[in-house]
Prior knowledge:
Helix content is about 20%, strand content about 25%. The termini are far apart.
Amino acid sequence: MHKKEIVAMLLAGGRGSRLGILTDKTAKPAVSFGGKYRIIDFTLSNCINSGIDTVGVLTQYQPLQLNRHIGIGIPWDLDKSIGGVTVLSPFLSRENEAWYSGTANAIFQNIPFIDYYNPEYVLILSGDHIYKMDYEMMLNSHKMNGADISIAVLPVPYEEAHRFGIMNTDDSYRIKEFEEKPENPKNNLASMGIYIFNWKVLRNALRLAEKNHNNSDFGKHIIPFCLNQGYNVFAYEFEGFWRDVGTLESYWQTNMELISLVPEFNLYEAYWKIYTNNEIQPPQYIADSANVDRCILGEGTEIYGSVCNSVIGSNVTIEKGCIIKDSIIMSNAVIMENTKIERGVISEDAIIGKNVSIGEGENIKNTLDPNIYDSGITVIGEDALVPDGVWIGKNCAITGVTTSKHYKNNRLESGESIILEEVEE
Length: 425
């Protein structure tokens, strides 16, 4: 046993189904963001910037990319002999089954990991939000209040409060009531899913919840139980940039916000750096034929065409005659000559052929997933191939190695999809 004051547990096992084909091959926290980062980098960087050096990362869905990215935690200075970062996958034991079946159940299954460090406090985090937060300030507030539990909250517009878990507090920010998506909210303090627990309180609550629920969840079970038991539960109000990039539209929009002349979320602040596991690449190359206007460009990228208001990852090639607007091109993608892309998301290692047009036509909802592809964004999946000379509309989704036979008259109309499970012979 090695005593630590606080241990962070980072929930990173979700698929993120609202991101559509972006999470077909990788968990949401491992999805690329901002040209060189992955979504989980922001929470991990918050930990080390806040002085927290012991982090358990709970993975489940498609963990390979995430595991490779985290490694032994070197980029975040989390390669410690005692503490550091530990990837915690589901496992079989005498007491439980293999899979994590709820947010609290995932922590319950890893009680021995936390017990090893015998902490005073446990910080519960999600790996799929974009924000900068000093958890040490939240911990100081927790101690000052004599709290058993502190819940980070964010003021939201009253007209949107019905979409969130709302914390009703007294004047001292002591939480009196928790309402999950109330029709008529009493206030606008929305839970961010960030909790600090006294470990003894959480340990007891987890064990009692597990007796009654095999899919125990913090919002549904743990927090209501602790309030009913009369524990001291306080809200910690966060004021700053915070985005849930759980939908395709919010993911695209948050990337686009980074390009603003004075971005609200600044990646360049020296005092709060965002760290990532990024292989050293050669510098960018912008040819004489290129035209680049207000973009983020990753290392090793070669630009020969025109790129405007876009986020371009590392080692991307955009050939001569291309016109890229309002788009996200992830690492190692190749866009061949004379191709036009507008409001597109091109995933890692995808290849887009010559004379292709993506993102034109009417804004018609996708017939396969109308609740995901409904904002005019067309997505090309990881490792996908789009052949030369095809026309692709808005709200389309394409996965796999496609050929001209997959496109009727070399067209994929707005709202249509080509989803190939494997390479066709």
